Amino acid sequence: MYGTRLRALSIATLITLTGGFALAAFYAPEDADQGFMQKILYVHVPLAIVALCGFVFAAVCAIQHLRTGESRWDLRSYVAIHMSLIFGAAVLITGSIWARASWGHWWVWDEPTLVSFLIVFLLYATYQPLRFSIEDRDKQGRYASVFAITAGAFVPLNFLAVRMAQSYTHPRVFATANGGLEPRMKVAFYVCLLGMALLYATLWKYEMTSKNTSAQIKRLRRRLAGDEGALPRRSASPTLEST
Amino acid sequence: MRNVVNGVLRRDLRIDTRTPQVVPGMALFSISAFVVFHFALQQRSVSGNLAAGVLWVTLLLAAVLGIARQFVADREEGGFEGFLLAPVDRTALLVAKATSLFLFLIALEIVAVPAFLIMLLGPSPQEFWRLLLALALADLGIAFVGTLVGALAVQSRARDLLVPLLALPLLIPLLIGAVKISAPVFGGPVAAARWPWVLALYDLVFGLVAYAVFDFLLED
Q1: Which of A21, A101, B6, B44 is deepest in the core (most CB within 10 A)?
Q2: For B217, which residue in chain A has the nearest alpha carbon?
Q3: pLDDT, tens digit, for every residue of B32-76?
Q4: Could you list the residue range(s) of the whole structural domain that residue B90 is in?
Q5: DSSP character string of chain A
């Protein structure tokens, strides 16, 4: 049995995320400078934080995979990076919309967080091509884990370097987000952050369940058909050992 | 361990002196890149931040060429199998490969930097030690990251595609630091004094990461 707590998790996500967006829309006051457009903060920033945490989670799973050699850790790392990449694309799109609305350009180079995020996204975008081009399953998993660990170490270094490279600090909503954000805004923000984290967890669990189930189906089919049903297909996603 | 490192290193250097491939390739590429920059930028000479950028982009792309070739002979001629059969520490291969890449990069820069000064640089360089510092720190970082990336990509079928895709994002922090440190040499603004430390931190982190994970790239 896979995906036992999936329904509860989905409902919790739905409630928290809807509640968070409702709080952001109606409860939190409008920003004096940016008006309604500032509401994108409640989508963009939680997405970014959750995506980065997902990359770190993937690196931790990859370390576990290299230590234990169990392919389920590889699967966890793979799914985490996959989800973080999807969230990352959403971060770049929402960030771009925000930049257009507040600074008049679709892309601004003096917003270090967004630029760092792009670099991290570009690096992780190589993860799947790397997996796909290594045919040996065992090797694929090990190499992917090495990549996930290296990239995980790269993330904080990259943020440090890009932030330091800015010659001046752009006036940023972020800077106030931690310090002087209005209490009502803060409440809405944290609820949205929690909702986004739950969304990530739900989607992660969904994909894990799907992968586990299809692996089980494959095992059963192989048992039915004998060895003929066991034609392995070349793919980027990890396979679980047939136990 | 030292004997093994010496042996592998000497073998790599001998291969490249007998059938020169990597270093001449990188050096030729860098000079072609300067010519390309001359025409693309439509300028007879460059200075300041632009000069630092042109030099470092060229060095970085040339280094990517070297990274892609690093493990090819080992894979095709059975060097990996031979190494794995020998009862030696696997980290030795990392150290030897990183050292040989470091030496190749120095050889590249001995050609590329004077060529850049003659062909493209407008103002005469000042405070040359800054460039040397940047080169030393950057070469160390490229050596670690490059060895890791080269070993990662060599087993895949899309090797030539993956090496630049993996190496360039990973080397961006290093590029930022190197440009910041060396810009004053070409008449650019002097950056904060902490940049050499950032590069040193980068070298340290990737040195440790490479040391920690390299063994897993060799298991078979």
Answers
A1: A21
A2: A143
A3: 999 999 999 998 888 888 999 999 999 999 999 999 988 888 888
A4: 2-217
A5: ---TTHHHHHHHHHHHHHHHHHIIIIISPPBTTTBGGGGGHHHHHHHHHHHHHHHHHHHHHHHHHHHH--HHHHHHHHHHHHHHHHHHHHHHHHHHHHHHHHHS-S--TT-HHHHHHHHHHHHHTTHHHHHHT---HHHHHHHHHHHHHHHHHHHHHHHHHHHHH-SSPPP-HHHHHHTT--HHHHHHHHHHHHHHHHHHHHHHHHHHHHHHHHHHHHHHHHHHHGGGG--PPP-SS------
Report the pLDDT value the prediction gives residue A1, as an integer from 0 to 100.
Answer: 56
Phi, psi of A190 (to 5 degrees): -70, -35
pLDDT in tens, A116-134: 899 999 999 999 999 988 8
Instruction: Tell me the chain B residues in contact with residue A126 when contact means C-beta distances shorter than 8 Å.
Output: 162, 165-166, 169
Distance from CA of B217 to the nearest CA of A (A): 6
Residues 6+ apart with CB under 8 A from A236: A128, A129, A131, A132
Minimal-distance CA residue of chain A relative to B145: A150
- Rounded to a whole number of angstroms, the distance from the CA of A119 to the nearest CA of chain B is 6
Considering only CB atoms, B162 lies closest to which of A133, A145, A164, namely A133
Q: How many structural domains are present in chain B?
A: 1
A165 at the B interface (CB within 8 A)? yes
Chain B contact for A146, CB < 8 A? yes
Compute the nearest-CA separation of B216 from chain A (Å).
7
**Pick from A130, A146, A164: which is nearest to B217 by CB?**
A146
Q: Output B86 or B28, whichever has higher pLDDT.
A: B28
Q: Smallest Cβ distance to A147: which of B152, B205, B219? A: B152
Nearest to B209 among A66, A145, A150 (CB): A150
The model's pLDDT over A146-201, given as tens digits with 9 standing for 90+, comes to 999 999 999 988 888 887 776 544 445 554 444 556 788 888 889 999 999 999 99
**B180/A130 CB distance under 8 A:** no
Three-class DSSP category at A191: helix
Residue B171: helix, strand or coil by DSSP? helix
Residues facing B46 on adjacent strands: B121
Q: Tell me the two tokens of residue A228.
A: 């003929």
B73 touches chain A (CB under 8 A): no
Put simply, the answer to whether B209 touches A164 (Cβ < 8 Å) is no
Structure tokens given for B134: 């940047």
